[in-house]
Amino acid sequence: DEMLAQVASIGASASVAVETSWRPPPEETLWALARSDPSSFVKMLVDLDEHLAKAGKAYQGLVLHDYEGYFKAMYGVLATDYPAAEVTELFSR
To answer: What is the pTM of this model?
Structure first.
């Protein structure tokens, strides 16, 4: 909230990154939550987005960092481990 207030005070905007990689120390990433309880992780993202949106134009949305960690947390494998046909099927729905 404080960061977005400061951003708004100078007429700028910002996105908020959510770390999902398994590589950083546990206190710097939401990897464990995403991997162990994907539903709670997604609900937390929705709640966080709704809360931060109250900052108005200063808030430009959430950014998941990184896609590789997010994919591994949600599906249990790296995206590059999926056969191309299965990845195409996932995104064609």
So the answer is: 0.78
| Inter-residue contact 29 to 22 (CB < 8 Å) | yes
Rounded Cα–Cα distance for residues 67 and 77 (Å):
12
Q: Maximum Cα–Cα distance for the chain, whole Å?
A: 48
Contact predicate 46/38, CB 8 Å: no
- Burial status of residue 14 (CB atoms within 10 A of its CB: 0-12, 13-18, 19 or more): middle
Which residue, 23, 20, 3, is CA-closest to 71? 20
CA of residue 21 relative to chain centroid, distance: 10
Please, what are the averages of pLDDT over each run of 10 residues along the chain (93 residues)?
A: 93 95 94 94 96 94 90 84 71 71
